[in-house]
Design goal:
Elements lengths: L1 E3 L2 H5 L2 E2 L4 H12 L5 H9 L10 H4 L18 H9 L3 H9 L9 H7 L3 H44 L1 H6 L5 E4 L2 E4 L6 E3 L6 E5 L14 E5 L2 H4 L10 H6 L1 H9 L4 E2 H8 L3 H13 L3 E6 L2 E6 L1 H9 L25
Parallel strand pairs: 1-5, 2-6, 6-7
Antiparallel strand pairs: 1-4, 3-4, 8-10, 9-10
Helix pairs in contact: 2-8, 5-8, 7-8, 12-14, 13-14
Length: about 325
């Protein structure tokens, strides 16, 4: 695969972070790969995959293709992502599933899904929601941390060593030469960006890929090992999640900086109604305070809430309850 970049494309090339919704299907695949860093992170939590979510493993094998309709490019919350996935035209869904290289005969459910049957679509939505809520969402703060470390390192590399050195170091399967970015992938084709620019996206994936169905030309590359090294070796388990539940614990962590209800919903990937309900419950426990800000309301942690979040930090010492501070379509062997 060759991506041709002109001067205008280079000027418009940026690094960007993915969302849990465009990474969800990929994470199902890498979770099945024993050597993946994402699997190591998940094993550190010592929590099982919900039975309902295991259905995704019938659809997404450990290696090979990942249907691109399961990876929506732009979604602001889980409900939005599920709506996009479920509204995929049956013809496209059937085509992408037919192109997958199955190692065994697909289950009857996958066949029903390929024909757009309503029961199968409902089961898919339920499986994706269960997987998101119980597997991906609790791990996403750690993913954001390693992505942030990767982006920081790449920004420094770009400033000090330039674009050529940066592009040539993204992954062994990616090489820049003479105005063309070559990505090792099956087939033989060329993409001319024609001034659109390129988004470079670090991912939990273990190989490079170009999601050709996305509107914004994007090259996905695996997060570097040094960025994963930012995480504790034991995959620090959020102790608040075992008491409050993973979603409410994430709400509490998110409110270390003040948020309106809409902002909180976006930060935690839940609906505004759910964000309001969680904030109300935490306010009743004395952990959150809510103030009116014009037409909206603004939620923030109380001193007790800050102390509890600080004590739950991976680096916190037992007994220390103060000192918390604000912290301002297709995918196939390297091709999607």
């Amino acid at each position: 695969m060759r991506i041709r970049l002109g001067l205008a494309d280079l000027a418009r090339t940026t690094f960007g972070a993915g969302t849990p919704y465009c990474e969800l299907a990929v994470s199902v695949q890498v979770l099945q790969q024993p050597a993946s860093q994402f699997r190591r992170l998940w094993r550190g939590r010592r929590t099982p995959i919900p039975v309902q979510a295991r259905r995704l493993q019938e659809l997404i094998p450990a290696h090979g293709s990942v249907p691109t309709f399961l990876a929506p490019e732009n979604s602001s919350c889980l409900d939005d992502a599920l709506e996009t996935v479920l509204s995929t035209p049956a013809k496209r869904m059937r085509s992408e599933l037919a192109e997958m290289r199955w190692t065994s005969t697909p289950s009857p459910w996958v066949n029903d899904l390929a024909h757009g049957r309503r029961d199968a679509l409902r089961d898919l939505a339920a499986a994706m929601r269960a997987y998101h809520d119980h597997v991906l969402a609790p791990l996403w703060p750690s993913i954001e941390k390693v992505v942030s470390a990767e982006l920081t390192a790449r920004a420094w590399q770009l400033a000090v060593h330039g674009a050529e050195a940066t592009l040539n170091s993204l992954h062994p399967q990616i090489r820049w030469r003479e105005g063309v970015l070559e990505v090792r992938a099956p087939g033989d084709f060329e993409i001319d960006l024609a001034g659109r620019g390129l988004r470079l996206m670090p991912s939990i994936w273990t190989r490079s890929a170009v999601p050709i169905s996305w509107r914004h030309p994007t090259l996905v590359f695996p997060i570097h090992a040094t960025s994963w090294a930012q995480l504790p070796a034991d995959g620090h388990r959020d102790r608040l999640a075992s008491v409050l539940g993973s979603t409410r614990a994430r709400v509490l962590h998110a409110l270390t900086t003040g948020h309106s209800t809409t902002e909180l919903a976006h930060a935690v990937s839940i609906s505004p109604a759910s964000a309001s309900a969680h904030a109300t419950a935490l306010r009743g426990a004395g952990l959150v305070t809510t103030q009116r800000d014009g037409q909206a309301v603004r939620h923030m942690l109380t001193e007790l809430g800050r102390a509890i979040v600080a004590a739950n930090s991976p680096n916190a010492e037992i007994g220390v309850l103060s000192g918390a501070s604000d912290r301002n379509g297709r995918v196939q062997n390297g091709q999607s």
